[in-house]
Prior knowledge:
Distance between the termini: 36 Å
Domain Putative WW-binding: 438-490
Region (Disordered): 365-389, 414-437, 466-491, 524-603
Shape: flat
Strand content: under 5%
HEAT repeats: 294-330, 857-880
Organism: Sander lucioperca (Pike-perch)
Radius of gyration: 38 Å
Protein name: Putative WW-binding domain-containing protein
Number of helices: 49
Amino acid sequence: MLAGLSLYFEDGHDDLDDFGFDDYGSECDGIRITAFLDAGQDNLTPLGRLEKYAFSENVFNRQIVARGLLDVLREFSDNENDFISVMETVARMSEDGEPTVRAELMEQVPNIAMFLHESRPNFPAAFSRYLVPIVVRYLTDPNNQVRKTSQAALLVLLEQGLISKADMETKVCPVLLDLTEPSSDDDYKIEAVAIMCKVVTMLSKDTVEHLLLPRFCDLCSDARLFQVRKVCAANFGDSFFVFEISETTTLFHSFSMIFFDLCSDSLWGIRKACAECFMMVSNSTSPEVRRAKLSPLFISLISDQSRWVRQAAFQSLGRFISTFANPSSTGFHFREDGALLEVPRDCSLNSLNCSDISGCHTGRTIAHTPPNQDGRATPSPEHVSTADSEEMHNFDDIHTSVPREMCGGFIRTFSNSNTNPTTTNNAKNAKDTEQTDENFNSFNYWRSPLPDISGELEMLNCQKSEEVIEEEEEEELDCPDSKSSPGKATSDQIQKVLDCLQPHMDDPDVQAQVQVLSAALKAAQLDSPEDDSPTDDGLTEPEPQEQPEDDIDIVSVESKSVEVQSESEESPTEEEQTMETSPASESSPEDSAHSPVFEDKPKIQNVIPQQLLDQYLSMTDPARAQTVDTEIAKHCAFSLPGVALTLGRQNWHCLKDTYETLATDVQWKVRRTLAFSIHELAVILGDQLTAADLVPIFNGFLKDLDEVRIGVLKHLYDFLKLLHADKRREYLYQLQEFMVTDNSRNWRFRYELAEQLILIIELYSHNDVFDYLRQIALTLCSDKVSEVRWISYKLVVEILQKLYACGADDLGLNFINELTVRFCHCPKWVGRQAFAFICQAIVEEDCMPMEQFGQHLLPSLLSLSSDPVANVRVLVAKALRQSVMEKAYFKEPCCAYSDELEETVMALQSDKDRDVRFFASLDPNKCLMDTAPLI
């Protein structure tokens, strides 16, 4: 605040002596603000002088007093009467006619309130009596600067919890309500709306709902001032979150309608504000409302006629999609610190019982999941708590097999074209269908209902029964052309269902349903009589002995599919569009990810509305950069981990192509964004998909620009620990490449490398550490930048600890000899100083037995006590006095090094350099000084 004093010195400096500001603090260069209280200037008491200058005719005097009120209160806080006098003076000063004085006074109110709160037992009464009225009155001050200052002060007081609930309800809220009256001044109303929207996040729900919510709803519909509606729209998300209105109340309905109206406002700025806060609103609603109401609303914003609205909507698209994430389906949740944690799958989350899950899982575990003997490192608890692999397969199997059984024949072989089902087989299929109904998975229960087509379904079922009877008769007669008629019937029946759905094409879910049926219709039409197997449709025929279990008539399955979807309100699953033959009960999503069929899967899923995903995938379209935002690809890359988490690893095929496109984007900022988040995506996808799809991209980032490589480097440990041991070992040869940068002055890159290597040591064997990481560490120890060198010395200590912890004493001894030659006998003093630092760190970390330390390192350390450079001797004294001599081994009377240690320390205590003497004599139990300036 003193920096602004020079602004008021324009009228002349000669008069300052007359105003009592001729004293200066002994330890500062500026004017001591409370100097006017000092005795000797006149015959007035300190309070009299305060009165004199607080109401002086000179504006500068009054400003100085206002600026120094906190110090004044400290001077008089011990005496209650004096304190009351000062507070009354403050109240009178608040009526000053000069705006700069009032603004200066208001800037001090939060500081004064905090001081009173900490030091005064009667704080609430004094604050409420003297300061709150000032803050409230200044909210209506005619000067804009004073009003802005009072608004900022009010928010600070609320954040610190210094204003009581009673004061808010009886003093602050009434003023805000008055300022937002329809007859209020426009400028006041706009400012009051802004402060009201911020206040609601700090007040109790009851206070907001009874006092501010009705007025907020009215302001959102203000037809005269678009600025008011814009402020309401920008803060709608926070308000919605605070209110937590039950969706069954009329209040929620009216609140929702207000938001819908704002999203369709005639002014693009208001629609843009709605798009920006859409995620907050979505977070405060239920999955049903999110899917049925908010999703179509967001689609309208994405296709808005204004480019700025579309830009804001696309920037919020990924965040909005992330609100569909459900920990029960994704298997992950976030801690308060933002760390992603994997949670165990709970069988109760699905309608399938645990016995069914385990029964279905056992065979697949044997066939597809090898024992976890690959040496993979388990992620640390602070990042990811890896669940049992069996639980992961259980979850994946549930989400793959259940929809497949419910929706049936789109992914099965067509029995009408290749086999002759028997009565036994039909009974078997009926039993399977019945079991599916009992084990129905109602996870996506919030889907909006499909149109009623029960009449058409009954007709299809009747036709189906007749066709089955006709088929059986034809089979008994061994008619060779029996398989041609059902194929035509199948096409006709699917076409009838499509015709029934045409009037409802406005519904996004119906559109997805039509896509499903269209794919089935095309497959049925391609199923010609000449085919002996469905391989022309891209399907693989199952084993002959398994065929009766898997065959089911396409018509009945199609009818069952639509019926189940209508009753359960569940969106079409991705398997309905893919037409693969391998049943979901036979493989997991990770296994299918490596098959050629996985590459051709359409980007269909049932977690979020398909239109949202389609719009998100279009963000990599070059045309979007021209029509929406030149940085739209960067926003897509930024939100991709959240979208991947929402969709789950079973739907990774929907995002894979988009991720690869972003990874090769011409803008390095896009690739940099991906590089910083690839480790999080690896956690979400799991080890198999990571090895197949992320490792190649990771390798590409390693060869990219430094701006991209730093993203990979900062989380190198987090990514490598998720890989198999053999794949992880391949990167040992590439770590050396991080030593080469585009700009040699980019020392922070090498610093980050050293920090990551300290963590990476635990992922490799002691032999690999000695063969590969040791040389990198020694190179970093010779860096030109001291920060890099000192973090590298810690890396050296960690390597030595790794060698001795693994019992590789011979390698440890070789490393010690190398350190002695490189540092202790270094011609440069910085190397010798580093040796002393390394020795101290080795002792403090107990990297090796003290007996071996005394034998191999202590003699070299003692020899540096007579080094000609004082900075070297300082660290030697510090290492000996604070670390070495504190070890029990060196305190023993029989220790061979105790006498030599005592003599060396005594010599250092009489050193000619005072810093050396200080550290050699310092009590180890005292607070240690930072020796960084000596380095």
